[in-house]
Write a structure and sequence with these properties.
Elements: H1 2-14, H2 32-48, H3 56-65, H4 87-106, H5 110-126, H6 135-143, H7 148-168, H8 172-196, H9 200-221, H10 231-250, H11 258-272
């Protein structure tokens, strides 16, 4: 199981990343050394692990480029974090909130970015993997809300370091669950935007891209298919995969994504309530 999880767990954290700014301070020079240190750590980790899934930044940038509207209400409310008691629920929703963090960054929602950074840090702490989401990182994010490139780098470094922490401590199951939560949230947001999108072809193509990454995710989740905590997530993702296969087999122009939208709503509700 460990060997297979190594291939895709980095994307799970990479999936949590996107871009932004609204009201904030310009980066302070005193943060430069800290950022360089984080980047060096990021580079070392990337030399060791591959990550074939598209990152959340890539997914969100596709939405931005398609001129999709920003609908912050689609994100999981940060107040829900206190409802997650078990390790499984915390891990899945760490992934969900991480994807939401990226979404807020991509659409320049600075206050929301800080809110989702804080709730991500809270769950990471409760899972005992919060060493990368400490007060210093939060300060760097707040200081760079107007600097998109630096913000992306700081957040991505923190997630890469968190991933490294999980793998060093042989917490493959948590890694897979966080990845699943991240994928579901990005899938859900995209599917909801599709419902009201003017350019449905553009958003539909992003939904199709989610299907390609889902196949990889399921390869990683397969060793957890009989796990009491993760089995329901795995089975739900299999239902989504079957729907994608049906759509691909039909190959109709302007496919009907209504079943995908329904599945996204149901699965996302199950993991966030």
């Amino acid at each position: 199981m460990k060997k297979s999880l190594h291939l895709l767990t980095v994307p799970l954290f990479a999936i949590l990343l996107m871009a932004g700014g609204c009201k904030g301070r310009t980066p302070a020079n005193e943060n430069a050394d800290k950022r360089d240190s984080l980047v060096s750590k990021d580079a070392l980790i990337k030399e060791v692990f591959e990550y074939p899934l598209p990152t959340a930044f890539e997914v969100t940038n596709m939405l931005v480029n398609a001129k999709a509207p920003c609908i912050i209400d689609l994100c999981n409310p940060v107040t829900n974090a206190d409802k997650y008691i078990s390790q499984t629920r915390k891990a899945i929703n760490l992934g969900v909130f991480g994807a939401d963090l990226c979404y807020t960054v991509a659409y320049n929602q600075n206050q929301e970015t800080m809110n989702y950074m804080n709730v991500t840090r809270k769950l990471a702490d409760e899972l005992n993997i919060g060493t990368s989401f400490n007060a210093a990182v939060a300060e760097q994010i707040e200081a760079n809300l107007q600097n998109k490139d630096t913000l992306i780098r700081i957040i991505s470094d923190a997630f890469y370091a968190t991933y490294n922490n999980l793998m060093q401590n042989k917490q493959d199951k948590l890694s897979a669950l966080v990845m699943a939560g991240s994928w579901v949230e990005a899938f859900y947001i995209t599917s909801q935007i599709y419902l009201t999108a003017r350019n449905k072809d553009a958003i539909g193509s992003i939904l199709i891209a989610h299907g390609n990454s889902l196949n990889k995710l399921l390869e990683i989740m397969q060793p957890l298919s009989d796990d009491s905590d993760a089995a329901s997530v795995y089975k739900n993702l299999l239902l989504v995969q079957k729907e994608y296969a049906r759509l691909d087999k039909e190959k109709k122009p302007g496919p009907d994504f209504s079943s995908l939208v329904r599945l996204a709503e149901e699965i996302r509700k199950q993991i966030t309530v």
